[in-house]
## 1
Amino acid sequence: MLSLDDLAGASAPFSIDFRLAEVNVRVHAPSRIVSVLEATLSNVPRFGPTTTPELTLSVLPKDEAWEIHGLEGAHQVMSGLSALPQVAGAVVSSAVRNVAASRRIITMRATVMERDGRAIALIGDDWESAITLATHFHGRGWTYVGTDNALLDPDTREVFCIQKSLYVNSSSLAQLPLQYRSAVEASPWYVTPQGISFYAVDPSVVKSSRTWTQSAGLSAIVVVDGGMADRSSLETVDRSRLRDDRFSRLNLEWDQIPVMDLQIGTYVESCDLIEHWFGSLPS
């Protein structure tokens, strides 16, 4: 079995600096982790070498595992057999959580898309479908606020941008819109120890007038939990479900945020339906 030094390439610390929600973040990590982070966060704003970071994270290979250290008490451990992009993704998630703690805002596991200053969050257990839907929205002129993590101020409902690459499972490629073909071809691909292959897709490669929005007001949520049907449909979420942890931790005024369950027919039909519903909501 490869040692972590073999996986990391070098145990000496390197670093990458970037900004999330106006917080300067520095990550110290072995060179190969930093290399993957550079690609994954290629669109994220950076801060200059003379600027002091407000938040520092460290990634350490230790005892056939990866340890990710953030704010006091914030600690995550991953198997040494994890694919490097999986470790990089965990580092980004850890940075998001630490930024949220430092700014007293909250995190959402969500893909967030924006149009005309209004954002819709795709949440749920069917992550591949949420990402695929987002690529179709992008192809229709929507912009990304976050691809798989979001920072949300529950008081103002403002969602802050996290400009991370899309991790797209190879099994989903045939469902992506044609605009994404060149982006996929330009993307690095990886294989996990379990044999799952995926691409790290930079959506800014897609021919579109705009890819990212720095922030937007959250106007609606769609739950994508893998429900499939002959025809797409949207159904109002039972209000009692809003007491579940998935919703209660967001601490939102739920009378003001419409939440719908999605049954997926085709992705084109599903996007048509969501756009029609979203467009009918009051501004």
Note: The radius of gyration is 19 Å.
## 2
Amino acid sequence: MVHHRIDKELGDFANKNLSTAKNAVFSVATILLVLIGAAQNGHSVNATAESPNADSVFYRINASIQSMQNQFWNKNLAWLRKRKKKLARLKCYLAVDETHDSYTGRLHKKPLKELTAEQRTTRQYIHKYQPKAGDTGSFKYLVFALVYGNKKRVLRIKAIRRKESYWLFVAQTLKELYQEVKFESALLDRGFYVAELVHQLQQNKTPFLIRAQLCDTMKKIYGIYQRWMMYKYQLADWLPTTLVLGKDWRNRQWGFIANLEVKQLEELRYLYSKRWNIENVFKATDGIQLRVATSNHKTRMFAVCLSFLMYNAWQAKNNRPTLLDYVKHLFEEFLKQIFRICSYRHRLKLNLPLWGFIQN
């Protein structure tokens, strides 16, 4: 069997976010075993980590949300700069979307003054939206992904607090990315149909395509016909922009706001379909993300970043296997390395069926 090398970016990220200080028994190797055991069995860390327990495992994740976000961002900026000439030869698109991580724990519904500082911080990151039945809320992340050729790469992640306005952050990030790679367009869904964002993108001269929210007033004024039409649309007194309305061959109604030049307006519908690449990224990473039951926003962020790092490492391979096979190889390499360096492995009490496999 050909063993896949553990991607350097994964190692760098883990080293910077896990303390290397040892106590009497446990080290980074042990923590990785607990994380891998949870992922392999589809369990939460709480269910897998009998000794050490989940608290002692994640006590060692000592990085802040901001530092993890910055490390992820800076690593991908370096990647873009290294491959600038290669990317210039490809048609690139930038997809932006939000993803939610299910939360099934308890919510702190008391008045803010009755909560501890930790509880107040936790509540800031738990949103009311419930992605799945049985959820009590969710953690929300803003994700920027580059689509280049037949590959995709997550470039930036931001943990979103409740009621946080992040339109300027989106515009600024797209501006910085456009300086690194001249993408054809930034693709955004109806959740980003916001006047402030459109105005900022226009000021920054960033190419964009945003799906418009079709309201009854808009339909009454303009009408939506089989023939695609372009209008100068006034979102606000100070914001003239281009609105494109039409129907596809299935008679579905579409509306877009864009600053792109196309030969035929129908091309915008085809271009927008590339935004589904980011939905495919979310679907893939959801299957390999560590299932943590904690409400600690830093732990959640670490698990999300780790899944996107694995996805990026997999996408970087030219003759890549399936994502599941790649992650299995990755875990196998982790475990074999840990087996070699972990001199006190006989003292570990972990629910880890793969341990016997590695010993043989």
Note: The longest strand covers residues 92-103.
## 3
Amino acid sequence: MIKDKFKQNLKKLMNDSLKQNELYQAGNYWKYYEKNLVEQINNYNLSEFRSWEGGAGRGNIQSFGGGSEVKGRTYLRNFHPLDDIFNFIDDSFLIKKYNSLINILIPYIPFLKYFLMRTSELKTYYKNLRKNSIIEKYNLIKIIDKDLLDIEDSKFGLNDNEIVYINGKIYTNRFLNELLKINFIKKNTNFKSIGSIIELGAGTGLLASSFLKLNRKIKYLIIDIPPTICFSDYYLSHIGFKVFNSLNLEKLGKNEKIDLKKIFKNYNVICLPPWEVNRFEDFKFDLFINVASFQEMEKKQVFNYLSIFRKYLKKYIYICYNKEDKPKAITKNSFGVLNLSSVNQIEKVLLDEYKIINKHPNLRDDHYDILFKKR
């Protein structure tokens, strides 16, 4: 039933997108992904979408922040040593007993180490390494902003192997990364004054969920292309937030204005596709967010979105930008972006109305965090 509703919404949005101006469709980069994403939705258990196998660059859910943290494949690599398909061997009683016996004998006969079933042994080390990495990041956040640890990740979408408990709370690496983004925003804004947020390209909705858990009164608008917008809607609605989506929108006439203020009286989150943005009644948001998706769009799409959303903003813009550009497409429909936009070009467009409060590499040193404030 849940999957049927998800697919109903997805089918509607995918069909609607074909009728839209290309400014509001998936760009060349994401067009390459769509078919694989839809295939993955059909073939996997939807309720474990945060644990699906795959790897960024392959057109699957990991390309926008979902999928397994434990078994995420490296770009252009098709195999992960710990893929679930081999669990029936690696986790079998006989293999565990065999390795246990070899480990007992190795101190006396060292060369026997070459006869261990090493992938099975690796699982224990890998699991502990990931857990310790999460604990280290947790302790860092505890030092720089312990109030953020009042909230925890949600179990929904994860299988048990992906969950790490710290002091009885659920944490994942991705969730802690979102808390670090929020810490950057907190340090550089009057954070308590932020009561409404637009996020363009929210992925699975994990950052949105973090903001909403910290402040249940925040009003959150997510704009994204299908099928990504379907996952944000699906995730947030299943962890306790009231979500208004495109199926709710069918009750309005096609040309009728969308009154965001009225909708927010009954909903925490609004999840809509980009072609609906020109129907919004005037509503001023405190913060605009884009995390690493401007680089996946064509330049004309980026500047179109910036020109539209600036009309709805009154305070801050937060952009997380990859240091490395996405691949450049050789021809239309080949993998990559045809016409890239640079972070300098985006800054230039915004600086007539905004000033940069802070810009620095994030903890992983692969993105810039940039915070703008309206002059």
Note: The mean pLDDT is 91.
